[in-house]
Amino acid sequence: MDLVFDWCVDFLYWLAGLMGITYKEINVWIFVIFWPLIFIIQWIYIVYLKNKIRNIKRVKG
After folding, report:
1. In terms of residue numbers, what domain contains 43?
2. Which residues in the chain show pLDDT less than 50?
3. pLDDT for residue 60
C-alpha cells in the first residue's frame, strides 16, 4: 500500500511541475474541483439513463 501511495505522490509532484503549480495546488484541483465535478456529472448521467430505461420499459410494456 505504501508503494502505491508513494507512486501517486511522485506522480502528483511530476504533474504539478509539468503544469507549473505546487503539489498542494494540484491536490486542490483534483480532489476539491475535478473529483466532485466528475461525481456530479456521473450522477446526472446515471439518473438520465435510469429515466431512459424506465421510459423504454413503459413503451414496450
Report:
1. 2-60
2. none
3. 86
